[in-house]
């Protein structure tokens, strides 16, 4: 009986610790630097595309999501301006910041205490604790060793997207020009709102 109670207590402690992992990570986050690999899967769970790049973030609301391979694209938020830059097409389009709602980046920008309906711990698999939002895109955050390890979501086409982070550094010193929009005169500028 004592072994059963001990196992039960350990189980509850693990769940309580897991439920605090999401809030603890995002509450302590001021800046972030990470590399990522993003894979998209069709509804049969077959990989259909793979990209890689890096993420830089600074509170209150500056980030750059840069894909380098196979196509160089940048999603940049700074000074309340959201830009999508396609280097190959030499095109930069300014977007409404409201387009971020429902994306993983929305959760980065806002602190847990500013959000309603925080993601809930759902399960652990292969050493990763998963938290799922209540959103229709089934956005989930995966944590390993109290650090953000992966993201999963379903896009509007029903495709599953998984992002796995590496080389993550929490609260690094970032260069002042990290979030500067630097476009040559060759770029077409489109304002979509």
TrEMBL record:
Keywords recorded for this protein, A-Z: Protein transport, Signal, Transport
Source species, domain of life: Bacteria
GO CC annotation terms, alphabetical: outer membrane-bounded periplasmic space
A biological process term (GO) from this entry: lipoprotein transport
Keyword flag Transmembrane helix: no
Signal peptide extent: 1-18
Assembly and interaction partners: Monomer.
PANTHER family named in the record: OUTER-MEMBRANE LIPOPROTEIN CARRIER PROTEIN (PTHR35869)
Protein name per UniProt: Outer-membrane lipoprotein carrier protein
Origin species: Candidatus Thioglobus autotrophicus
High-level lineage: Bacteria, Pseudomonadati, Pseudomonadota, Gammaproteobacteria, Candidatus Pseudothioglobaceae
